[in-house]
Design a protein that fits this description.
The chain is of the alpha/beta class. It has a domain at about 10-150 and about 165-200 and about 250-260: Vaccinia Virus protein VP39 (Rossmann fold), CATH 3.40.50. It is about 35% helix and about 25% strand. A 7-stranded mixed beta sheet has the order 3-2-1-4-5-7-6. Helix 1 packs across helix 2. The structure holds S-adenosylmethionine (SAM). The site of S-adenosylmethionine (SAM) has 22 residues, from helix 1 and helix 2.
C-alpha cells in the first residue's frame, strides 16, 4: 500500500511552497492579534521557523521555543537564528515538552489541522500558558476553499487522484475553532478571517512551486509523465489559461483566547 500521509521532511522546499504564504498570513494575524512585547512564547508546530521569524522580528519576545516533530524542519529553522535567539525542540502538540504555566503565549501557525486530536493540542496549550496568558492559532480554511493551493487540488481528479488531507481537516473551520478554545477553558475568545494574496511571475512559476508541496507530492506519487501533463493543463485551466502573472488569494481563520486567573 502506498504511503499517503503528508510529510514535512524538506525545510527549503517548504519555504518556497508554504513559508512565503505562512509569512503573508502571519503578518495579517499579528496585525490583528497585537500581542504585547517581552512575552515568553511557544510556537507549536513551528516547522521551518517561518512564523517564528515573524515573532522575532515583530514582537520583541522575551523568549521563543519552537516545537515540531520534524527534525528536517527544525534543522532549517535553526539556520534562521544562528545566534540561538530562538530555541527549537522536537516534540508533539499533544504532549508539549514544557512545564505547566511556563509561557505567556502559545501559538499554532497553520498547524491545528495536522494535530490528530486538536482538543488535546489546545488543552496542552492551556496547560503550559500561565494564568492571564493567551493561546492563539490560525489555519487555512481548508474545507471552504481557502487553501492557497486549492487550484492544484481541484485539478487532481483529472488524473484520478484526490487531495490528501491532514488528519483533522475541519479543525480550522470558523464554527469549530471557538468551541475548541472554550472547551479548553479559555475566555474572551475571538476569531478573525484573514485573506492574503500571493503573485507568481507566470503559471510556470506557480507550477514549479506547487510541485514542491508535501501534500501534492503524496498525491502525485507514481503518476506517469503524460498524466502530469494532463494535470498541468487542468490546473492551468483554473486560471483561465493565464499567459501572464498569476495571483492567488487564500483565506485563513484565526482564534485567540485568554486563560483566566485562577480566581475567575
Ligand atoms: C503547515 S506546517 C506549519 C509550519 C509553521 N508553523 C509555519 O507557519 O510555516 C505544519 C507543521 O505542523 C507540524 N506538525 C505535524 N503534526 C504535528 C503535531 N502532532 N504536533 C506538532 N506539530 C505537528 C509539521 O511537522 C509541520 O512543520
Amino acid at each position: 500500500m502506498s504511503d499517503t500521509s503528508i510529510r514535512f521532511d524538506d525545510g527549503a522546499a517548504y519555504e518556497h511552497y508554504m513559508g512565503v504564504w505562512s509569512q503573508l498570513v502571519g503578518d495579517r494575524f499579528l496585525d490583528w492579534l497585537q500581542p504585547s512585547t517581552q512575552q515568553r512564547w511557544v510556537d507549536v508546530g513551528c516547522g521551518n521557523g517561518a512564523f517564528t521569524d515573524l515573532l522575532m522580528r515583530r514582537c520583541a519576545p522575551a523568549s521563543v521555543l519552537g516545537v515540531d516533530p520534524s527534525p528536517q524542519q527544525l534543522a532549517f529553522a535553526q539556520t534562521r537564528f544562528p545566534g540561538g535567539t530562538a530555541r527549537f525542540q522536537q516534540g508533539d502538540a499533544m504532549a508539549l515538552p514544557l512545564p505547566d504555566q511556563s509561557v505567556d503565549h502559545a501559538v499554532m501557525a497553520l498547524v491545528i489541522f495536522f494535530v490528530p486530536e486538536p482538543s488535546r493540542g489546545v488543552a496542552e496549550m492551556a496547560r503550559v500558558v500561565q494564568p492571564g496568558g493567551r493561546a492563539s492559532a490560525y489555519g487555512w480554511d481548508l474545507m471552504g476553499g481557502g487553501f492557497p493551493w486549492a487550484a492544484m487540488q481541484a485539478g487532481l481528479p483529472s488524473v484520478g487522484r484526490s487531495p490528501i488531507l491532514p488528519p483533522s481537516p475541519h479543525a480550522a473551520n470558523l464554527d469549530l475553532l471557538p468551541a475548541l478554545w472554550q472547551e479548553a477553558g479559555f475566555v474572551d475568545v475571538q476569531t478573525q478571517v484573514l485573506t492574503v494574496q500571493r503573485s507568481f511571475s507566470s503559471f510556470e512559476d506557480y507550477w514549479r512551486i506547487a510541485l514542491m508541496g508535501p501534500s501534492v507530492q503524496a498525491s502525485l506519487a507514481s503518476l506517469e509523465a503524460h498524466e502530469m501533463e494532463v494535470l498541468k493543463r487542468a490546473v492551468h485551466g483554473q486560471f483561465d489559461n493565464a499567459q501572464g502573472p498569476v495571483t492567488v488569494t487564500a483565506r485563513a481563520h484565526a482564534v485567540t483566547g485568554r486563560k483566566p486567573q485562577s480566581s475567575q
